[in-house]
Every structure is written in structure tokens, then in C-alpha cells.
């Protein structure tokens, strides 16, 4: 997906962090913005509609887990993994109007934001290519932005609580079933890490990411 030798090893990780942090930050802002449009001001009141990434950093999910997986992933799982999350924006679901469709819309706003960012990185890369910049740090940055946003979008649509896909499912389920279903949230992170470690999640998401990679190759990126 990314051309070897595009940037040197010393620059690779810092450059990866830029689109990764931006992807999870805008993802969370989108949830808060959608909630605000539907009547809940909780995220706005908490100052979480800010592009300042420090407002969205989760010490474990944004720093510790991604760093550990990046450094130890190849040894533990045979491949480098890059997975993490920002601090979820607070949403008072009961204030949304209408409530159940509102839950689904707020949940979907995050992946939708990643899709828009993917398109923006792709457009930026095409502009750079048109200007004759076919390699180097800027192209690497665009490639990373495209792949990260595709991955974050698809992972969040997996219906495991507390991922966004589970909120959409919750909005569609009868209330009693939704309560039982959301009890899985206590084990959600463990389930996601097990799916990653087993390779099952990659098998599910692989065709989508392969499609994105094929598009990038076809466009000469």
C-alpha cells in the first residue's frame, strides 16, 4: 500500500502520528457535533468540539496501546498493528430528538467523518501528484491518512459495544434486547483485541482495505 523508501525510518512514526491523531480527533468531534444538532449540548459544554487533540487524548487508547502494538505487534502477532482510540465524547442519549434515530445518527457521524477525511487526503494526494510531487513525506502522509481513515471507519462499524456499529444496532433493537446486547460493552475492548490478535478482524476488513489500496495503486499513489 505504501511505497517502500518513501521516507526514512526516523520520520516514519512521527509522520504516521499526524493523520492517526487527526483521524480519531475529528471522528470524536463529529459525534459531538451531531449530538449538538440533535439537541444534546453535553460535548459542546465539555469543550470537546475542539480540534485541539489534547482535549481528546486517552492516555491508554491514544498513547499506550498504539505504541505497544506498533513496537511489539510484529513479535506478538507476526505483523505491526496500529490500533487505538481517543477519549469518547460524552453524549446524553436521552436528550437527542428523536432519541432512537438520534443514537444511530450520532454513532454514524464518526465513521462518516472518517470517510470525508479519506476523500480529503485522496484529493490532496492527487493535487500533489498533479504538481509533480510523487513521493516523499507529503505523499507518505496522504497515504497514511487514506489508510488510517479507511481502517478507523471500518473498525468502528463492527457491531461490538462500544464501537459505533453497536450503537446503530442498539437503535434498531427492541429496548429489552438492546439492554442485554450492551452488556457486552464490559468485554468490548478484550473482544476487539482478541479479534485483532487472531487475524479474524483483518480477514473481515481486509477486502475493504485491499480495495482502498488497489484504488491508490490505480491512481499512482
Please explain how this structure is put together.
- The chain has one domain.
- It contains nine helices and no strands.
- It is globular.
- The N terminus is likely disordered.
Give a short summary of the structure.
The chain has 221 residues and is mostly helical.
Mean pLDDT: 86
The N- to C-terminal Cα distance equals 9 Å
What is the tally of helical segments?
9
Radius of gyration: 18 Å
Largest sheet features = none
Helix content: 55-70%
H-E string: HHHHHHHHH
pLDDT under 50 segments (min length 5)?
Answer: 1-5
Quote the beta fraction.
under 5%
Tertiary shape: globular
User: How many strand segments?
Assistant: 0
**What structural category characterises the helix and strand content?**
mainly alpha
User: How many separate domains?
Assistant: 1
Task: Itemize the secondary structure elements and their pairings.
Layout: H1 9-37, H2 42-45, H3 59-77, H4 99-130, H5 137-156, H6 164-172, H7 175-182, H8 188-198, H9 200-218
Helix pairs in contact: 1-4, 1-5, 4-5, 4-6, 5-9, 6-7
Features of the shown structure:
disordered N terminus, globular, 221 residues, mainly alpha, 0% strand
